[in-house]
Design a protein that fits this description.
heterodimer; A: alpha/beta; Rossmann fold; 8-stranded mixed β-sheet; 12 helices; 16% strand; globular; disordered C terminus; B: 89 residues; alpha+beta; two-stranded antiparallel sheet; elongated; binds adenosine-5'-triphosphate; binds magnesium ion
Chain lengths: 266, 89
Amino acid sequence: MEGKIIVITSGKGGVGKTTATASIGAALAMENKKVAVIDMDIGLRNLDVVMGLENRIVFNIVDAVNGKCKVQQAAIKDRKIDNLFLIPASQSDNKNVISPAAMKNFCKELRTEFDFVLLDCPAGIEQGFENSVVGADEAIVICTPEVSAVRDADRVIGLLYAKSVLPKLLVNRIVPEMVARGDMLSHEDVVDVLSIDLIGLVPMDDNVVISTNTGAHLIHNKQSQAGKAFRRIAMRLNGNADLPIEVPRAKKGFWGKLGFKRGRNK
Amino acid sequence: MIEGLFKKLFGKEKSKDAAKKRLKLALVYDKLDVSDDLITNLHQDIVDVISKYFIIDKESIKLDIKRSDNSSSLILNTPILSTRRSQSA
Ligand SMILES: Nc1ncnc2c1ncn2[C@@H]1O[C@H](COP(=O)(O)OP(=O)(O)OP(=O)(O)O)[C@@H](O)[C@H]1O
Ligand SMILES: [Mg+2]
């Protein structure tokens, strides 16, 4: 077994890396793959709370990389989904306690143990980014349809190419109503500016916050459009590369049904 | 087309168009901004090329990147002292 290691990164903070890591990881595990999601945000761990596993932590990624425990000891089994494991970040250490060389080595071991490994990269392009990228086979770059996020994505994409890690783009927090009005960059605009292939489009969705509140899996919420988008991304990663990318659409509310207001801007 | 008409009628650009324009420019500028080395090397190469044709004051040549609303341009300003006879034909 030779697993695939995918780093989820963005440059800019708060665009949805942790949310995407948890949801895509869960969806891949639901497709019967053995999956590890790893929190690389040392000192500011969050993936554990998003997944509702915060009170099961014994060992962490620093212990595992530095040989203080085995991979199997650091990997916490998910409560709901078989085949899904979390390796949490350490909360007390500093980012430099892991070296890129040690991380690269550790990635080799991970490949023998899991089908997919998703690395939740910290924001920024410093050591935490280096450590997350060094052993990765591919990257998912996340941005929101905003000037600052797209600019940072461009920077990160350049760095990834320089390291021969192939990136694909995930545009998160799309508000279709704003796109229709011309008040938000469309995914076409973003792709045009960044010249990169898409892996998926995820709408703004209240269910993200709601499921994070309880530590439940977003992909288990059948109402969630974001959850659905993440499931489709997982299918694309899992050998179904040509699955069409759905563009988030405005909800058909009162005004939408009348075809009024929005129609004018077409 | 309808978009253009809409714009003419209401004279207002969509905010996302402004965002896209600014982004494209920022990315160009970010890449130009990357290294002082590039500008220094470019400066030297330009001086060398121009010196083949003109006698110029190498000290007073100025190279700038200027941004306007829609584009960035490279602006070169150099006083010419005289042409080089041998090259003028
Ligand atoms: N599609 C979405 N719809 C609504 N809210 C979202 C969506 N994606 C992310 N969020 C919210 O945005 C915030 C930031 O998300 P998240 O923590 O995943 O970002 P991050 O990139 O991991 O941040 P950091 O850089 O700090 O690690 C969270 O509050 C999350 O619930
Ligand atoms: Mg995060």
